[in-house]
Amino acid sequence: MNYQLFPVSPELRPWIRYFWSYDGFGDGRLHIRSFADPYPRLIFQDTREYAPVVDQARGVMPVAYLSGMDTRPTSAYWNRQFSHFGVSFYPHALPVFFGISATELVNEMPALSDVDRRGMTSRLADARNHRERVTLLSRYFLERIQTPDAVIQEVFDRNTLVLEGLKGIAASHRLSLRQVQRRFKDQVGVSVRTYLKLQRFEQVLQQLSGARFGDLTRIAFEAGYADQPHFNREFAAFSGLTPYQFLREQTMGSESASFIYAGDDVVSIQV
């Protein structure tokens, strides 16, 4: 499999983390486990040449779709021959580009054509390669930028979600802490408390890369969990696995909080 990252133009960097592509070759099937993830995504799949993604309910996913912030794990399946392209957004990006409350997209994956009817799905399909898709979407997003919420933009620019930092931002904008928290949920999709849990889970996933079973107690302590059972419960709620199970499973690749596994026991996928 070939995974690539593409840089983002300076004008879009406040809201887009990176563009990515994933291309697979070979026979057989794959099982993708997507864990809770604080970063929304846009995903395009080439269904003209390859079989489409099938979700856990055996429904075929749209050619291009948005995935809002995820607070629970899901599964999907596809063949080992595939070509996918995507965008990883910062948590507060969806209202800026699509003019909708982020709460509407939490744990949802609507077709891009349901959110915007400018024909971008067919243009992505007609593109000759992934770099052309980067150019298409960069222009598309630059044309769609709406005035961001200045308060929430400052929260992410300053990377301050601790209580004292939020109080300082609230005071500078003559708002109450409660008003800032409400605006955060509208722009991001979840409460500050839930977002901090997702952020901690993301950091734990990074530490588990290359970790051994004997490292779990240390990782739980450094992440601020009260004890090992607390760590196990929260990890399972966000991933569907215990930390031990996650370390034991053999992954074939990953993108953000989505992990690819061999899928010999999964559903059959047909074009």
TrEMBL record:
<dbReference type="InterPro" id="IPR009057">
    <property type="entry name" value="Homeodomain-like_sf"/>
</dbReference>
<dbReference type="Pfam" id="PF12833">
    <property type="entry name" value="HTH_18"/>
</dbReference>
<dbReference type="Pfam" id="PF20240">
    <property type="entry name" value="DUF6597"/>
</dbReference>
<dbReference type="InterPro" id="IPR046532">
    <property type="entry name" value="DUF6597"/>
</dbReference>
<dbReference type="InterPro" id="IPR050204">
    <property type="entry name" value="AraC_XylS_family_regulators"/>
</dbReference>
<feature type="domain" description="HTH araC/xylS-type">
    <location>
        <begin position="146"/>
        <end position="249"/>
    </location>
</feature>
<dbReference type="GO" id="GO:0003700">
    <property type="term" value="F:DNA-binding transcription factor activity"/>
</dbReference>
<keyword id="KW-0804">Transcription</keyword>
<dbReference type="GO" id="GO:0043565">
    <property type="term" value="F:sequence-specific DNA binding"/>
</dbReference>
<keyword id="KW-0805">Transcription regulation</keyword>
<keyword id="KW-0238">DNA-binding</keyword>
<protein>
    <submittedName>
        <fullName>Helix-turn-helix domain-containing protein</fullName>
    </submittedName>
</protein>
<dbReference type="InterPro" id="IPR018060">
    <property type="entry name" value="HTH_AraC"/>
</dbReference>
